[in-house]
Design brief:
Strand order of the largest sheet: 3-2-1-4-7
CATH class of the largest domain: Alpha Beta
Helix content: 25-40%
Number of domains: 2
CATH architecture of the largest domain: 2-Layer Sandwich
Number of helices: 8
Order of helices and strands: EEEHEEEHEHEEEHHHEHEH
Largest sheet: 5 strands, mixed
Distance between the termini: 19 Å
CATH superfamily of the largest domain: ATPase, nucleotide binding domain
CATH topology of the largest domain: Nucleotidyltransferase, domain 5
């Protein structure tokens, strides 16, 4: 195989996934491993994944990496990562030095958004906002096929937009230091915490979903609260950005009824109440790794 392949690596809290695209943009190799729990081990794990892909594909022409958080434009140090052991470390520089090559490193949700904007559910739209609903909540913005970072590289971080919390409750403190961040309420862990606080039942998000689907009224109420909060976020996006489309990805996005519930509720939170953008499910496989590969032309 010619060495024209683009490699994308998606570093997540539980797994590191990699995908290699050929000259035509087709996936020709994928792999994944569990994410280690220390900074040095993550660096070595990414190096190992890159070497595995290069060996399988006869070399790779470029490497892109998607990672929670972002590099500070002021210091170059990584920040805002939910894998907190990476924060305040020169991740991008050390990763490039370890691999001995130039890299393009981007926020993981931005990589997801890029994958969906170029060949995914957002194809044909100029302004694509993507939300990843999993253990946490991520957001990415692509305009005219290019990731938009903002002047200080914090654009699209809707997971850390404070939202209105239930009356009579105390806002939860986020790992970022903020109070009432959306990720604490619109995510798998957020839904589990909300269910526990309201019902006293310590269930995981998959258990809550299973109970909801079996008709449990408490689980159905928990799911309804989470989807309403997600609809509020889509309304906020409409009021600020008015995107052409909102793409949902991550484990929670595939729960039956989620998209319909959000689309029905969102217009009530849009200024004027007329409309909200269409909400669609992600289409591309390994979106984070694919988007990281697409960071290179």
């Amino acid at each position: 195989m010619e060495t024209v392949s683009r490699l994308g690596v998606d570093v997540g809290g539980t797994k590191i996934a990699a995908l290699v695209l050929d000259r035509q943009g087709e996936a020709v190799f994928t792999t994944r491993i569990d994410t280690p729990r220390t900074y040095e081990a993550v660096i070595e794990a990414v190096r190992g994944v890159v070497e595995t892909c290069a060996a399988a594909c006869g070399g790779v022409a470029s490497v892109g990496i998607g990672m929670p958080g972002s590099a500070s434009p002021r210091t170059g140090l990584w920040r805002n990562c939910n894998m907190t052991f990476v924060n305040n470390r020169p991740f991008a520089a050390e990763m490039s030095k370890t691999l001995g090559r130039e890299l393009r490193i981007e926020n993981d949700a931005n990589c997801f958004a890029l994958s969906e904007a170029v060949g995914g559910a957002g194809s044909g739209h100029a302004v694509v906002y993507a939300l990843t609903l999993g253990t946490g909540l991520g957001g990415g913005l692509v305009v005219d096929g290019r990731v938009r970072h903002g002047a200080r590289a914090v654009a699209a971080e809707i997971g850390h937009l404070p939202i209105v919390v239930p009356e009579g409750t105390t806002p939860t403190r986020c790992y970022c230091g903020g109070l009432g961040c959306a990720e604490l309420y619109v995510s798998g862990t957020g839904m589990a915490r909300d269910h526990r606080e309201v019902t006293g039942e310590a269930l995981s998000s998959p258990e809550i979903i299973a109970a909801m689907q079996a008709g449990d009224p408490k689980a159905r109420a928990t799911f309804a609260r989470m989807t309403d909060r997600l609809a509020r976020l889509v309304g906020a996006l409409s009021n600020v950005l008015d995107p052409d489309v909102v793409v949902l990805g991550g484990g929670l996005s595939n729960v039956e009824g989620l998209v319909a519930a959000v689309e029905e509720a969102a217009p009530a939170y849009v200024f004027g109440g007329e409309a909200a953008p269409p909400v669609v499910l992600a289409e591309t496989a390994e979106s984070g790794a694919r988007g990281a590969a697409l960071l290179w032309p």
